[in-house]
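Hey,
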Amino acid sequence: MTTIKITQIEWDTDGESVDLPKSVTITVEDWATGTDEAQIEDWVSDYLSDEYGYCHHGFDFEVC
């Protein structure tokens, strides 16, 4: 298993007042050999939108 720390999430809420996390730590299946940072970033982006129902303007992440 691999842990990903997602921080500094900038949610796109169109001005709505919602309670969304600024950081999240998730555990995922091990990444396949050769998975690059751009692929992981795309996956994390989709995860955030799918999980929380809002788009975002960006985030930082660290694979632990």
